[in-house]
Amino acid sequence: MFENLIKNKDSDIAIVASPDHPVLVTPPDGLVAKNGKIAAYYKLLSTEKKSPKNLLSRLALCRYALPTHTQHILIANENNDSSVIDKVYSSFDRVIELNDLNQSLLLLNESPNNLSVERATVGRDKHYVKYNLLYELSIQQLRDDEPEERRVLDVNTDNYEKAIYSNWFGRFDEKPIKGKSYESKYFSKTSNGYFSTPDFVNSKRRFDLLRRLCISSLQIDSIYEDGVLSKVTHESKLILSQNLPGYTHDELKGLRGAAFAGLGLSHAKSYDSADRYSEYINYRFERGLHEYSKKKNRYNKRNNNR
What we know:
With 306 residues, this protein is of the alpha/beta class. It has 9 helices and 12 strands.
């Protein structure tokens, strides 16, 4: 898709197709930069055509991962379902046709609009507090147990209450919609959060499975409106597994990507243990938010007094 752009680009434009971002397992399809201005491009994946919420989940994570002034652009083509575009149109900064890809580079000459920055700022502080906590605790899980001691919880999730997805395209209230069609295939509910028990060992496409978990987890306790992701609750979400998929050159890529999507790794050996760990994460998150708010207030106060 970006071949012609790369061939014909100006010397002051940098283009990266299929970028590998440190904390994203679901990155944009391309990044274009010029003199500090950045545009992220998205094309509809097959899973996103079937479930537009998956596209918005990818967009939400990318907004948090990329600089706040990044413009997020959806590329529509003649094969895209117009009903899908209609549902997600207002969440992107621009929607263009594939034929207008070259022309869209002119957007990099413009200053980012306030709406783009606002969309990337709402909830950003809380997101990074949660990410740093989950990544720290997940690394600790790997270090605390010897490999032979890592016996992961083996449960029949049919015995537990299913997590319920929020309805992003219906009414934007703070309550998930009840009904079989909104039940999660991946997550079950505990008293203090959610857990998933993916079989990474026997999966032939382990990283794809992790991507589905990351995308799915955002849709449980949130609402999404006009390009802004808002968390209704901040209950912990755990992946009960010995480890998470990674790359040969980056073994912790999956761990970082999961943490950035709000998922923590757990070596819990019982349901009660998993629930207690969820409660502990919730406590640490609230404490972390409190400490961050105090530091931010002190920083703002010092700057205002100068």
